[in-house]
Design a protein that fits this description.
The structure is a single chain. The chain is α+β, with helices and mostly antiparallel strands and about 280 residues long. The chain has two domains: about 130 residues, Diaminopimelate Epimerase, Chain A, domain 1; about 100 residues, Diaminopimelate Epimerase, Chain A, domain 1 (Roll), CATH 3.10.310. The protein is built from five helices and 16 strands. The longest helix has 15 residues.
Length: about 280
Amino acid sequence: MKDSAQPAGLPFMKMHGAGNDFVVIDARRTDAPVTARLARALADRNRGVGFDQLAVIRAAADADVALQFLNADGSEAGACGNATRCVSDFLLRETGQDSLRLRTARGMLQALRRADGLVSVNMGAPVLDWAAVPVAREIDLLHLPVPGDPAAVGMGNPHCIFFVPDAEAVDVAARGAAMERDPLFPEATNVEFASVTGPDRLRMRVWERGAGITLACGSGTCATAVAAHLRGLTGRHVTVDVDGGTLDIDWRDDGVWMSGPTAHVFDGWLTPDFLARHR
């Protein structure tokens, strides 16, 4: 019997990791469809809830859960590191476990809680093959034939990283939007602008594919750290300052580990009327 105190509709959680914000829908025990149209409606910060990405938690036979990610424009996101950390924080608290296995389009990911309370996720090995990033043709991924000499790295989704003297001075909106749909990237790309600010420390700003400017991008931070090391700018363990906070990236033999803050901001309910209008 339905609990009369429970609202009708679909529950959701609002979370963020370093300002990268998400709506999270726990679909493990509901058959409510989550469509691209619903994602676009939810992403509207005036008429919906507002988010950079939508994360959907689903049951999985071979993992603790499966995760699906959709961008603000309704497109699928193959990876979303900060959302993975936020959901992992929620699930670690729910289960009392110390670690999790998560099935994503990126593959099987591991999450764990560090001794300092932060959540770490192994985002897997970086993709350094041109066809798998993907880019349109075989080229040197560390020096793309594009003004500004960017690098390309895949982290389950494509990234184009520009190393600049001062990330603060970059017009991210103009340059990011122009590069997102460059023909060199057949599936479009995320675009990062980073500068070295100290020993093994970077300042990064980002334009996310399908979302625009965001305060942080987990997979983009990982890709930037990988590119910085491969270019000889940093070691493999770096601190990255993004618009919304600070993330710790450690490229180990088993993958790129990302750690940082998470926040569960509030819980809410999508009304039956809203769901019916945006199926």
